Amino acid sequence: MVKNTRVKKYHFSFQTVIRLTIFLLFIYFIITQISKQKLPVDMTFNSTILGEKTSSPSAQLFLKNTFDIVYDKLPPKSQETINNLDNNPLITTIQEKLDYVKKESLNFPQKQINEIKKSIINSIYKNIMESINTEKQ
């Protein structure tokens, strides 16, 4: 049996031109929107790990000014809540737990090595005791 294989010829039709034009316009508008949202050249931000200070003075100044503006726009009750945040029981509990974790994480690898050594010695001891008990019987 011979399969009927016809190769369709590609026709560059008016519908193809319209689709291509719409696609190119869509890409053009996306690129122009993205390019309009550039950061100013003088502002550079360094990504940092949580808890570390930013090394760039301009980034520190920008963040401080932004936080000051936002803080000034808050209602007085919210400002008071933020000022008394250190006295909040939830915050103090979280801070205590973080301090505990930091304290316990000191020398953590050494503690784990000691635990592994103890478990190896205990298993050897149990094996020796079992072999002695089986020899006596």
Main β-sheet: number of strands, strand sense, barrel status?
Answer: none
Number of strands: 0
Range of helix content = 55-70%
| Number of helices in the DSSP assignment | 5
Kindly report how far apart the N and C termini lie: 82 Å
- What is the SS-derived class? mainly alpha
Mean of residue pLDDT values: 82
Strand content: under 5%
Instruction: Flag low-confidence runs.
Output: none
Topology overview:
Blueprint: H1 14-36, H2 57-73, H3 76-83, H4 89-105, H5 108-136
Structure description:
- With 137 residues, the protein is mainly α.
- Helices cover 69% and strands 0% of the residues.
- The longest helix is centred in the last third of the chain and has 29 residues, at 108-136.
- The relative contact order is 0.03.
- The model has no long low-confidence stretch (mean pLDDT 82).
Question: Could you give a short description of this structure?
Answer:
By secondary structure, the protein is mainly α. The protein is built from 5 helices and no strands.
List the main descriptive attributes of the protein structure presented here.
flat; mainly alpha; 69% helix; 0% strand; single chain; 137 residues; 5 helices
